[in-house]
From TrEMBL:
The lineage of its organism: Bacteria, Pseudomonadati, Pseudomonadota, Alphaproteobacteria, Hyphomicrobiales. This is Uncharacterized protein.
Length: 596
């Protein structure tokens, strides 16, 4: 986090403690209990004057319960958690903490926190949560925390605004401009904004400690490690909230609404690590998902095997179109909280109908108006508009530059709101790709994949963009992995596998994959099969596909070359694809009418 515009001046111990409490109690600070203890420990030790003792060994023992044999080279738990903590602090200060006076960061290269102060704010700006305003505390009465030298020399104009304010201001300009365009398309809803937890309503998953089904310390250590790894991987999915203790409402009662428990066990059988996992809906104790996972620990070793199984479990539970997102549009009609609109989006992407598109679009438009700082809903609204550009023949829309421009503006705004949000980076990747900027697209895609490699939609879309940009080996590997993890929508990534096989010359495998895809999802899927059938010389079968396109999507025919060049970056790939179309009996030369 940059320090430009921040004065590194004295902050009282009480102010720092209040800021720590503010962060830990915020809904925007979405980390498990262990990572919260990490932050609390390093802040408390620094306030006590023991910052020099904040080493990986000390933190591992105090926070993670490791013994005196802890080796940071073999066990990277502290380093991994520190990275997650840095990302989440950045997210907090870009959202709920945008007006906070005290800035807590943990610079890379160490674990000791730094306390920066917004120069233009007064100590009274920091209030104990749930207490009325009172005068600021004088530094003479409490210990002072100094974070370095004054930074005003880098700001000669005297402005005291943090870069976060400029990010939010720029985002506000974009979203207002976008809203003006949106309001011309649909009737404006009430200007009343939702506030508090009800405006979010994301499902909460409590990850219970996995049980050890075998005796001995090794099985116990693995069960504990599996639990921690699952939490670490689940936290990266921004559509859900992950906790390690039962959430309670304002009255102190346990709230079971939208609450799920992830439970499981681990047992060792020789070199085999066997795990079971299940997701339980707390409201009625129904088991809504369960699965078994086995792995041979001699292949990768214990840490990698444990992490791999944790990734599989987290992906199965939280992946888009997976367990948490299986619902009908009818159950969420009329609701505009964030999660209902997210469900509406995934329902639309599964159906790919004009009606479902309008339902999801309308929901997301209203949600963005009510929750402009929610990076997820802004990103999904970007994708909704982008679909009008890339799926125009299915949705009966026009692929205009204005539509693409709005999608890109929204994607950029979503990334500014949360630079580590995989869905926002995915939206930016796709917007840049269709804006004919493959370098920027792949850069955003790499960021999305690094942020959450277990998100199958991110992995699959990034794989498609790599492939279509000419990096077929890397891209097809990711697409294959996404398909292997049941990535949705059903039949969507199979067409990517068909293209992968086609471009490597395996036309028989290409036809099989193409027929496994959802041919009614988008007319472009039919076009892929048409090209493959043409290359195989299957004239009659190609004729059937061509007749379908002429009947169901005639507007596509005169624009085939344009659509192919929009998606395939390399000239040789375009030629191979178009040659198949020509062999199928359809001319794609500019200005020529299609053959009968």
């Amino acid at each position: 986090m940059t320090s430009a515009g921040i004065n590194r001046i004295a902050a009282s111990q009480e102010e720092v403690e209040q800021q720590l409490e503010r962060i830990l109690s915020s809904r925007e600070f979405r980390l498990p209990e262990r990572t919260r203890k990490f932050l609390e420990f390093v802040v408390t030790e620094t306030l006590a004057g023991r910052r020099d003792y904040l080493k990986a060994f000390t933190i591992a023992q105090a926070v993670f319960g490791r013994d005196a044999n802890f080796d940071a080279q073999q066990d990277p738990c502290v380093r991994i958690e520190a990275g997650r903590l840095r990302r989440e602090l950045e997210h907090y200060y870009l959202t709920a903490g945008g007006t906070d006076r005290i800035i807590i960061t943990i610079p890379k290269g160490g674990y000791a926190p730094v306390f920066d102060v917004i120069g233009g704010a007064e100590p009274a700006d920091i209030l104990p949560l749930g207490q009325p305003e009172r005068p600021g505390v004088s530094g003479a009465d409490h210990g002072q925390i100094h974070a370095g030298t004054d930074a005003t020399s880098r700001n000669p104009g005297g402005w005291r605004l943090s870069p976060r304010y400029w990010l939010l201001a720029a985002g506000a300009v974009i979203i207002l401009a976008s809203a003006a365009a949106l309001l011309r398309q649909v009737e404006s809803p009430s200007a009343e904004r939702e506030a508090g937890p009800s405006a979010n309503n994301r499902p909460t998953i409590i990850v219970e400690r996995f049980e050890s089904g075998s005796g001995g310390n090794l099985a116990s250590d693995i069960s504990r490690g599996m639990t921690d790894d699952i939490i670490e991987k689940l936290v990266r999915f921004n559509d859900i909230v992950v906790v390690t203790a039962m959430p309670r409402n304002k009255s102190g009662q346990v709230s079971a609404e939208s609450l799920y428990a992830l439970q499981g066990s681990v047992r060792l059988e020789g070199s085999m690590l066997r795990s079971t996992a299940r997701l339980v809906r707390r409201a009625d104790a129904a088991v809504i998902w369960a699965s078994n996972y086995d792995a041979d620990m001699t292949v990768q070793g214990i840490p990698k095997t444990q992490a791999s199984l944790a990734g599989d479990i987290a992906t199965a539970v939280a992946r888009p179109f997976g367990v948490m997102f299986q619902t009908d549009t009818a159950t969420i009609a009329g609701r505009t909280d964030a999660f209902s609109c997210i469900l509406s989006y995934y329902s639309y992407r599964s159906e790919m109908t004009v009606q479902a598109h309008e339902v999801a679009k309308s929901c997301l438009q209203r949600a963005v108006e009510k929750m402009p700082a929610d990076s997820n809903v802004v990103a999904l609204l970007s994708l909704i508009h982008l679909d009008e550009f890339r799926f125009s023949y299915q949705l009966h829309t026009k692929s205009t530059a204005a539509t693409l421009g709005l999608a890109k503006q929204l994607a950029e705004h979503a990334v500014r709101l949360d630079p580590k949000n995989a869905r926002a980076l995915q939206a930016l990747m796709l917007a840049n790709f269709f804006d004919n900027d493959p370098a920027a697209a792949l850069s955003a895609g790499a960021g999305a994949y690094a942020s959450n490699p277990n998100d199958t939609e991110v992995a699959g879309e990034y794989g498609l963009r790599l492939s279509m940009s000419g990096e077929w080996d890397r891209g097809c590997t990711l697409i294959s992995e996404a398909v292997g993890k049941n990535a949705g929508p059903r039949g969507y990534y199979e067409v990517g596998m068909a293209l992968c096989a086609f471009m490597r010359g395996d036309t028989q495998a290409a036809e099989l994959w193409s027929r496994m895809s959802d041919l009614n999802y988008n007319p472009m899927h039919r076009l892929v099969l048409l090209s493959i059938l043409g290359a195989l010389g299957k004239k009659q079968e190609a004729k059937e596909q061509l007749e379908w396109i002429r009947r169901e999507s005639p507007a596509l025919i005169p624009h085939i070359r344009q659509e192919v060049t929009r998606r395939l970056a390399r000239t040789e790939d375009q030629r191979r694809f178009l040659a198949g179309i020509e062999a199928a009996g359809l001319s794609v030369q500019d200005g020529e009418a299609p053959k009968d």
